[in-house]
Backbone:
């Protein structure tokens, strides 16, 4: 009898943010730490566990968080900062965000890889821009690259708190 291989999210080594650095290095260090914290919360879980919605009052899951952050980075850095109007969210049906729904545990590895690929592309975008670079949005008007980086840090920090609760309800793991 053969057993089917089930993908498990890999362990992640988080690198501390810099304690003394210039503004750009500090902000990007914190962004990197928050990004890796999300993956740290997913480490060791199967696709089925990542897709679980252990808190009945919400659609949130760790896999949903992975998918949500893929789109957050894609939209803020590629679509808005770089003005790439062809960069639509991946998990959107035209009317609503679908990162939280239509979860397929068998595609967890693919969704995880998509986030890592998006980080690589978005890091290249950030390398091309100064924090003071400006861009226009229909909703908010003029915005800066600095604001986007701070927003991404805030977005991860907020959702990493959700990830803590989700992980604890899945398998009891707590901690940083």
Residues:
């Amino acid at each position: 009898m053969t057993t089917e291989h089930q993908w498990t999210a890999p362990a992640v080594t988080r690198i501390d943010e810099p304690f003394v650095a210039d503004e750009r290095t500090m902000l990007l260090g914190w962004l990197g730490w928050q990004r890796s914290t999300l993956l740290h919360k997913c480490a060791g879980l199967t696709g089925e566990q990542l897709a679980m919605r252990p808190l009945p009052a919400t659609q949130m899951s760790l896999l949903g968080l992975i998918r949500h952050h893929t789109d957050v980075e894609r939209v803020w850095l590629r679509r808005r900062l770089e003005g790439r109007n062809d960069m639509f969210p991946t998990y959107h049906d035209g009317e609503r965000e679908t990162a939280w729904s239509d979860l397929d545990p068998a595609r967890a590895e693919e969704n995880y890889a998509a986030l890592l690929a998006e980080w690589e592309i978005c890091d290249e975008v950030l390398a091309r821009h100064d924090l003071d670079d400006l861009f226009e949005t229909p909703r908010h008007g003029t915005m800066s690259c600095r604001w986007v980086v701070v927003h991404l840090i805030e977005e991860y920090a907020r959702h990493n708190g959700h990830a803590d609760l989700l992980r604890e309800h899945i398998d009891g793991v707590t901690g940083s």
